[in-house]
Structure formats: C-alpha cells, structure tokens
Design a protein that fits this description.
Radius of gyration: 19 Å
Structural class: alpha+beta
Largest sheet: 9 strands, mixed
Number of strands: 9
Number of helices: 12
Strand order of the largest sheet: 2-5-4-3-1-6-9-8-7
Distance between the termini: 57 Å
Length: about 270
Amino acid sequence: MSSIIDAGFVKAFAKLCDDAYNKGWHERNGGNLSYRIKDEELKPYLSQLSFDGEFKPIGVTVENLKNEFFLVTGSGKYFQNVKADIENNVAIIEIDESGSAYRIVWGLASGGVPTSELPTHLINHSIKKEKTNGLHRVIMHSHPANTIALTFVLPLDSKVFSRELWEMMTECPIVFPRGVGVLPWMVPGSADIALKTAELIKVHDVIIWAHHGVFCSGADFDETFGLMHTVEKAAEILVKVLSCGGKRQTMSADDIGSLSGPYKVNINTDFLK
C-alpha cells in the first residue's frame, strides 16, 4: 500500500502551499489552508490514521460537518516547508459526532495543533457546504500585499471594493461575479471574525480582512488558488493605476453587466447600481 503522503489530494494540497508561498503571499508562518476530504480519497488510507487521540473543542458547532475529515495546515507552521516535509507541517483532523470537537488522526508528527484560524475555517466550510450543495471543499487564507495595501486607501465597503477590482480586468466579474466582501480590522482567530466572515461568505467567495489578508472559498485547489490570484492581480493593477494618477477611462456598469450572458455568470447587480 502506498503512503498517504503520495495520495493525490495530499500532493495537491502541498503544491498549493508551495505555489502560494512562491507568490509571496505567505511570509513566515502567515496564512492557512484547509480541505474537506472526499470519502473515496481517504478510504484507501484509513489504516494509516490513528483514532486514539482525544477530541478537543473547536469553539464552534458545525453539525453538517460531523464525522468529516479535513486536511489543514498547522499553527505556527510555514507554507514554505509544507512540500518538503508535509507530515510535520499539516494534519488530518476528524470532526466528532456532535460537530463541536476535533481530533488529529494524522500529521503534525513532531507535535503541534491545527491552524489558530480553525474555527473560522470550519464554520465557513459548514456554510459553503450548505450553500453549494457540497461543491466547495477548499478554504484558503493568504496575505497578498496589493490587496492588503488597498485596505488603507479604499473605503472598507464591499460594493466599492468589488467595483474597483472588477474594473481592473475583464476576467474579474467572470471569476468572482458575486464581488468581494470586506470586513474592518478584527482580531485574527477570534469568534468575532469567524462569525462576521460567515455572514459575508453566504454571498461571496472572497472576503477581504482589512490590514490583514484575504479569505477565499472554492470547489478545488486550482479554483481557489486561481480566485486568490485573480483578486491579487486586479489589486496590483489598481495600485499601479492609482500611482499613475488614477483612471482616465474604465468599464461602465453596463459593460460589466453585459458579461453575464456570454459567460453564463450571475454578476451581483446590487454592485452595479
């Protein structure tokens, strides 16, 4: 039997960590990643898991995630180290029958605990599982510099941020048609930021945390990475436009809205008014 380290979902997780680190989004131990594992992916490796560990409180209750398994980055671990030594930097956790506790069943071999943002990840996984009929499985939190920079100069308003980013590239309204949600600065890892993010993620797949980073949800690793990449590239263009003196021409609301039909996306019309 092959090692779980060689499983496709584990390799894909490690690749995303490495790609995101190489983009400059994960300085030191910044950022975190989680993946809701499919039953068929984990089944061949169940004998390599340990079910002797004690369940620990999550801090939130996620009933629709009971008995599910997640691959998550460890607290204090560095994205740059995941690909080379995944067993010491990530963990597979199991959610208990009540949906209120977890235990580590694999990984973090030299010790440690899952990301400090675990409650935020799980409560938002719970919402996205419900809202997407189980399609969304990946949640990624990164620190992309240009997007963070914009939180110091743009109003912390979801409509304003969405319109500004949409106007930077034609692809933006297509890739994130519901726009982005924006939150003011809050203490990372707190119940407050978890609950406020959860409210916005019911509508958006991208949440911008002011002066902190970006929180994305997607169906798979490529989609989620691509979403983060698109937002950050749009932010980089906007930073350059602002540094050049601002816009002289741009896409109108009608221009953006006209993309809905050809690309079969439901662009958030509230943000076009």
